Amino acid sequence: MTKVEVFISSTCPHCPGAVQVVEEAKSQVPNLEVEICNVEDEENREKAINYGIMAVPSIAIDNHIEFVGAPSLPELLERLQ
Predict the structure, then answer these.
(1) For the whole model, what pTM was predicted?
(2) Long-range contacts of 46-49 (CB under 8 A, 24+ apart)
(3) pLDDT, tens digit, for every residue of 46-64?
(4) Beta strands 32-38 and 58-61: pairing type?
(5) DSSP code of 16?
(6) Could you tell me which residues are beta bridge partners of residue 58?
(7) What's the pLDDT band for 71 if we cut at 50, 70, 90?
């Protein structure tokens, strides 16, 4: 099982695109666990701080930050392989 965490903010104009790309990848990649982490929630803010995230959207794959910003679907799929 591969875990993908998408760190977002409700005020970010680029975050919905990042969520959409991850959801599209989920339909193509078996055993993909997706967690959307809004940094406005204290628990998710702590998690973002622990990762060293300074900007949203940021995407972590298996506990490593892989993207800052919204990747394209092909870029995300390549990292998931």
Answers:
(1) 0.95
(2) 47/5, 47/7, 48/7
(3) 999 999 999 999 999 999 9
(4) unpaired
(5) H
(6) 7, 68
(7) very high
